[in-house]
Every structure is written in C-alpha cells, then in structure tokens.
Write a structure and sequence with these properties.
The protein contains eight helices and six strands, in the order αααββαααβββαβα. The protein has a four-stranded antiparallel sheet with strand order 1-3-4-5. A two-stranded antiparallel ribbon has the order 2-6. A hairpin with a 3-residue loop joins strand 4 (117-126) and strand 5. The chain has 171 residues and is of the alpha+beta class. The radius of gyration is 20 Å and the shape is elongated. It has helices at 7-21, 33-38, 42-47, 56-60, 65-71, 82-99, 142-148, 162-168, and strands spanning 49-52, 54-55, 102-109, 117-126, 130-139, 153-154.
Length: 171
C-alpha cells in the first residue's frame, strides 16, 4: 500500500526522489513533513513500523568486562572468554532493543515520473511527549536505508558480527 500525501508535500517528495536518482539535483528540506506525519499521516507512520532500535554508541556502553562481571556469574576477569563477551553483548542488545523507545518506520509512496520510493523515518516516541523525528530520508528501499545505517543503528543483536563485537570490546 502506498501513502497519498497532500499536493504541497508530494511536490517536495517528488524533488527528493529526483535527488535520489540524480545527486546534482538539490535535496529539498523534508522537515515540513513532520507536522503532517504527526497528525494526518500518523496511521501510515504506525503501520510502517519496522522495529525498535538502539544506537551503536548505546551498545558500546556495556561492551566491557566490568559490566559483564556485574551481570554474569564470573568472579575473575581472567576467566572471561570471547564467547562470554559475545553472548553477553547479544543478550544485552536484545534487552535494550526490546525496551527502546526509538523506532524505525518506512512509508511507501509513488511519484508521477519516477519509480516508487520509500520514506524512511527514525523517531523517538514518548507517551506523554509524543513523537520526535530524528531522521526523515527518501530511499530506493527500506533495505537501502538500513544498509546505509549499518553500524549506526542496531535493530537486531545479530546486526553486529562476532568479530565486530570483539573488536569494539573494552577489556
């Protein structure tokens, strides 16, 4: 299902899709979409949810032996293996993602002269404060956006390889 935007916003999206295909065309300011997304487009935002996420920097906060020893029954740092570190990191990421108020959404839309595109949105949602949009981008596909954000946002504990976890681990 594709979303129908008001004509004024559709013109902005059309320009954004042109930029997507030709970087010589300037990217329009997409911030005017925020108000519409919060009110008239809210159902499309909600139905376009792809999942919760955490930022890599948030994961790195607990990639250390000290936190691992606090949560896991290991009493000496010398007994910690890389398997322990990887298991702890994945379990902790899974927990953080399940508790996160940050979410990623995508909304499919069409333009008259170009192929369909996707509006990709990262946002923070708080029940009392409402939605706060962090990033609104026009992409070829949801997968393209996630590929571009690879390593910046983590939607699944397996988004980071074992090797990457070990490389970033503070011992």
């Amino acid at each position: 299902m594709t979303t129908i935007f008001p004509p004024k916003l559709q013109k902005i999206l059309d320009k954004a899709v042109l930029h997507l295909w030709d970087k010589a065309i300037p990217l329009p300011d997409l911030s005017s979409l925020e108000e519409w997304l919060e009110t008239d487009g809210w159902d499309d935002v909600v139905s376009g949810i792809q999942g919760s996420y955490i930022h890599l920097s948030e994961a790195l906060e607990f990639f250390n032996d000290e936190d691992l020893m606090e949560y896991v029954d290991i009493d000496q740092q010398l007994k910690i293996t890389n398997d322990d570190r990887i298991s702890f990191a994945r379990n902790h990421m899974e927990y953080k993602i399940s508790e996160s108020m940050d979410s990623f959404h995508s909304i499919a839309f069409e333009t008259k002269k170009m192929p369909p595109a996707v509006l990709c949105i990262t946002m923070y949602y708080h029940g009392q404060g409402g939605a706060e949009f962090h990033d609104i981008s026009v992409c070829h596909s949801t997968e393209d956006y996630l590929r571009d954000c690879c390593g910046e946002i983590i939607m699944d504990p397996n988004d980071l390889s074992d090797l990457k976890i070990i490389e970033m681990w503070k011992k």
